Amino acid sequence: MAKSELTTGTQAIDRASALLINILQSPTPPLLGALSRAHDIPKSTTSRILAALERQGLIKRDRTGAFLAGDVLTSFAREQNQDSMLVARMRPILESLAEKTGETSNLAIPGNGYVNMLDQADGQYLLGATNWIGKRVPYHASALGKILLAYSAVPIAAGRLEKLTEKTITSRTRLLADLENVRKNGFALITDELEEGLVAVAAPIRELDGRVIGAISISGPSPRLSHKDLTRIGVQIIDEIEAVQSMSYTKKSPLHKQELGKVGAA
User: Fold this and answer.
1) Buried b / exposed e across 54-68, counting CB within 10 Å, b at 16+?
2) FRET pair for 104, CA 20 to 30 Å: which of 71, 96, 117, 164?
3) Which of 197, 218, 181, 231 is nearest to 94 (CA)?
4) What is the Cα–Cα distance from 220 to 136, expressed in whole angstroms?
């Protein structure tokens, strides 16, 4: 690429970014002329840049032709706010579970291709302690992911199921059977499927209409957590979620209860 082309491309990005920031920070939706003058960009050029931003859903126009945040950005902001509210509501559960079990607890929601790890409360042990926030955790090999798959919060992705360990389920038939057991039990278990020596159990978080919007898990090393321990903790997670949600219902008005939604196992 020629240096002039690179410079022109960089300038276009700088201009588009400046215009977008101006629109987002403006107390009132600005018009084309005002944006052109504010950034000393020819009106025709400003119009082309704004049109490109509009096509991508980053901005849109109101009835007067003024520009404001587009659906892509408003949807993102709304989701971030919802995530923050969910973290605040579920944090006491994570801390309680970590204290009672001594193991790491995690909160997750559906992500783009991977489980989106939102929050974590660390247990008392050093062995097995991992910061899962930001890690790419596949759905089919994690307890949290299996909850989201089992209750149709996300679909099973097309293509090959990645093999992470010798115990990872890579057969769709086996995975579907496993997800049926998840729905039957109300919680999901994994043993050595994500990492050798790692076990976990997770249970769902629901809205009032029954939709699963997230999951909470407990994980730790297999020498410390038997299958019996995981089953007991799975029931404990369900009880903790239901208890906290029930308390929040009694403190809120009926309208607010609907906004918070219901959590718990099927």
Assistant:
1) eeeebbbeeeeebbb
2) 164
3) 218
4) 18
Contact 73, 62 (CB under 8 A): no
Instruction: Give the domain CATH number at 173.
Output: 3.30.450.40
pTM > 0.70: no
In this structure, are 87 and 13 located in the same domain? no
For residue 15, give both structure tokens: 């201009």
Contacts of 134 (CB under 8 A, 6+ apart): 117
Return the amino acid letter for 204: P
DSSP at 256: H
Give yes or no for a contact between 225 and 200, defined as CB atoms under 8 angstroms apart. no
Are 142 and 199 in contact, with CB atoms under 8 Å apart? no
Instruction: State how far the alpha carbon of 57 is from the alpha carbons of 13, 32, 52, 191, in Å.
Output: 16, 17, 9, 43
Q: What is the pLDDT along the chain (266 residues), one digit of tens a residue?
A: 444 544 477 888 999 999 999 998 988 899 999 999 999 999 999 999 999 999 999 999 988 999 988 888 877 766 666 778 888 889 999 999 999 999 999 999 999 899 999 999 998 877 656 788 888 899 999 999 999 999 999 999 889 999 999 999 999 999 999 999 999 999 999 999 999 999 999 999 988 778 899 999 999 999 999 999 999 999 999 999 988 766 655 554 443 444 434 333 33
Which of 210, 92, 97 has its CA nearest to residue 152? 210
Question: Would 265 be classed as within a structural domain?
Answer: no
